[in-house]
Design a protein that fits this description.
The chain has 301 residues and is an alpha/beta fold. It has 13 helices and eight strands. The chain has an eight-stranded parallel beta sheet with strand order 7-6-5-4-3-2-1-8. The radius of gyration is 18 Å and the shape is globular.
Length: 301
């Protein structure tokens, strides 16, 4: 089995040109360099933060190719290959392999309600092209993967890990119990759960916050590895004012791009129909970043 995912994996946004029509390749390279300089262990491309439903197949491959090139082996690259149809997920995963990604990460099919047997087959059919990370996000997909089903998937050859994006932390605890012998990388996908998830045995996080403040998220990881739980709790509390913007209304993509703009890393607009970040929320977001000391360290300042 390929090495299981561990540590802080940054789920990066996809920067667009000012009119939103094209991927801004220069901005994408700057974002990749930003998270790499922050010490992340991996980068996730074309996920939800990366607006995968709004990207063409060609754009998804381009994003992964550029990030692979910029990383140059310094971090593991997880390419988002989510699709409603298994055939399309397979083709997208082949694209990701061709772009040089180390692994694919994908949610279950969405829109139609799919029985567990077919959800299992969907992931099993994709595994083998690249190492696969199962991404459970029932709020967005409508198809929830139960702890029992996830434990079965963690035993499949070619499946190397889990991103568990569910607000019920107890579900993650149960997956860890059922799949402990699999040695897969079982991670949370919810920034506010990071410290708690590590305390119950999770192996890391696929993090939107780590695309904004990568060093701060890596520091929380390091404090737990050092068994400095007082320090880790303080770091969690410092991060929470930012984390809350990445989990609730108005969604997490526009707050991510707005926060990066405040740091001097303009990612352009979100693609419609996603909403812009509310002007009224900007002072609170700026205060959250100021509390982490990063506004004084703006890129290029």
């Amino acid at each position: 089995m390929e090495a299981a995912p561990r540590g802080v994996i940054s789920a990066i946004p996809t920067p667009f040109t000012a009119n939103g029509h094209e991927v801004d390749v220069d901005a994408l390279r700057r974002i990749a360099r930003h998270v790499l300089d922050g010490g992340v262990h991996g980068i996730m491309t074309a996920g939800g933060t990366g607006e995968f439903p709004h990207l063409s197949r060609e754009e998804r491959r381009l994003v992964t190719e550029l990030v692979v090139s910029e990383a140059a082996g310094a971090a593991t690259i997880f390419a988002g290959t989510s699709a409603c149809a298994t055939w399309e997920a397979i083709e997208l995963t082949r694209d990701a392999a061709g772009a040089g990604a180390d692994a694919a990460i994908l949610v279950p099919p969405f829109y139609f309600g799919i029985p567990d047997e077919m959800l299992f087959r969907h992931f099993a059919d994709v595994a083998g092209i690249l190492p696969v990370v199962v991404y459970n996000n029932p709020l967005y997909t409508g198809n929830s993967l139960s702890p029992a089903l996830l434990a079965e998937l963690m035993a499949v050859d070619g499946i190397v890990g889990l991103k568990q994006s569910q607000d019920d932390l107890g579900q993650l605890v149960e997956v860890l119990r059922l799949a402990v012998a699999s040695e897969r990388g079982i991670c949370t996908g919810i920034d506010s759960q990071f410290y708690a998830a590590l305390c119950v045995g999770a192996h890391g996080i696929y993090s939107t916050a780590a695309s904004i403040v990568p060093a701060a998220m890596v520091r929380l990881w390091e404090l737990v590895q050092e068994s400095d739980h007082d320090g880790a709790l303080a770091q969690h509390r410092a991060l929470q004012p930012l984390n809350r913007f990445l989990e609730y209304d108005p969604g997490y993509v526009s707050p991510t791009k707005e926060a990066l703009r405040m740091l001097g890393l303009d990612c352009g607009p979100v693609r419609r129909p996603l909403p812009d970040f509310p002007v009224s929320e900007r002072p609170a977001l700026q205060e959250a970043l100021a509390g982490l000391g990063v506004l004084e360290q703006r890129v290029g300042s």
